[in-house]
Design brief:
The structure is a single chain. The protein has an eight-stranded parallel beta barrel, surrounded by eight helices. A two-stranded antiparallel sheet has the order 6-7. It has a single domain, classed as Alpha-Beta Barrel (TIM Barrel). The chain contains eleven helices and twelve strands. It is of the alpha/beta class and 327 residues long.
Length: 327
């Protein structure tokens, strides 16, 4: 075996060109999925206080300008979250034809046809209690929720969505959505399952952005315990068997070991969600001059890719795309 000084690993680190030539993990704008919060109303561009640089946008010229910029930056896809004008116990605005997400899909398909459109399929933004399920007599009804999720996914598909992404962690959600899509003739619409979604403390700013905090209790009965990884693999196995086309781990940074475990166990495309709390921490530290935002963001996104993610859902997508273009 070669020993020092014959072996000098620094030889291939000596210049930017050599480092680029031997780089094992790539990071590019088309690896990103950019989350957008689409609200009812017109001419709305309202910044989320806990997420600097992230806005609630109305599905009109405001959104059209945003997606034109996203497409110009080379970002591969957007994922849509809806903020309806009204909420109720049935989450009826989630599958209404004129709801913000459905309107946004149609607008994006005209304004930026090259973008892939992913939609979040969950009820929490649409229920008056803020939970992901239909609640009956104070108890979450998993199976009644499946019917509603199927209706939501079919509605998004009819509006033109390329991918639907169920995030509620309901047992059987992928099977129910696949059946709803297929019976309505939407067999080409893919399912990106939030197969591994932890009951995380890092979601707080998202609930500000989506206006979806639970009115009571928490979501620990259906989202995963942060201590578990074998359970994550069981969740993935079930969703693959039910017809998922791609899998997701959420959040990303505290769960990179889970990303790697899922990558090693399943050949499906894999996404990881760089969530709102992770974004807000970097933004706050950078605003105080404690971190170099550009360097930290590109490092953490590279780390998510290195762990095995093919796609990264990230609020940093636009900034990261600009920085990569200048590299």
């Amino acid at each position: 075996m070669s020993a020092f000084p014959a072996t000098r690993l620094r030889r291939l680190r000596r210049t930017p060109a050599l480092r680029a030539l031997t780089r094992e993990t790539t990071l590019a704008a088309d690896h990103f999925i950019y989350p957008l919060f689409v609200t009812a109303g017109s001419d709305v561009r309202r910044e989320v206080p806990s997420m600097p640089g992230v806005f609630q946008l109305s599905a009109d010229g405001v959104l059209e300008r945003e997606v034109a910029e996203v497409a110009q930056l080379g970002i591969g896809a957007v994922i849509l979250f809806g903020l309806p004008a009204t909420k109720d116990g049935r989450a009826s605005q989630a599958f209404a034809d004129d709801a913000p997400v459905q309107r946004a899909i149609r607008l994006i398909k005209k304004a930026a046809p090259a973008l892939a459109v992913v939609t979040d399929v969950c009820l929490c933004e649409y229920t008056d209690h803020g939970h992901c399920e239909i609640i009956r007599k104070g108890v979450a009804d998993n199976d009644a929720t499946l019917e509603a999720l199927g209706m939501v996914a079919a509605s998004h598909a009819a509006a033109g969505a390329d991918i639907v992404a169920p995030s509620g962690m309901m047992d059987g959600m992928v099977r129910a959505i696949r059946a709803a899509l297929d019976t309505t003739g939407r067999t080409d619409v893919a399912i990106l399952s939030y197969a591994v979604k932890y009951a995380s403390a890092f979601y707080g700013p998202f609930r500000d952005a989506a206006e979806s905090p639970p009115a009571f209790g928490d979501r620990k009965s259906h989202q995963m315990d942060p201590a578990n990884v074998r359970e994550a693999l069981r969740e993935c196995e079930l969703d693959v068997g039910e017809g998922a086309d791609a899998l997701m781990v959420k959040p990303a940074l505290p769960y990179l070991d889970v990303v790697r475990a899922v990558r090693d166990a399943f050949p499906l495309p894999l996404a990881a969600y760089n969530v709102s709390g992770e974004y807000a921490m970097v933004k706050a530290a950078a605003a105080n001059g404690w971190l170099d935002e550009r360097a930290c963001v590109l490092e953490l996104l590279t780390g998510i890719r290195r762990a095995g993610a093919d796609m990264i859902l990230t609020y940093h997508a636009k900034d990261a795309a600009r920085w990569l273009a200048r590299a």
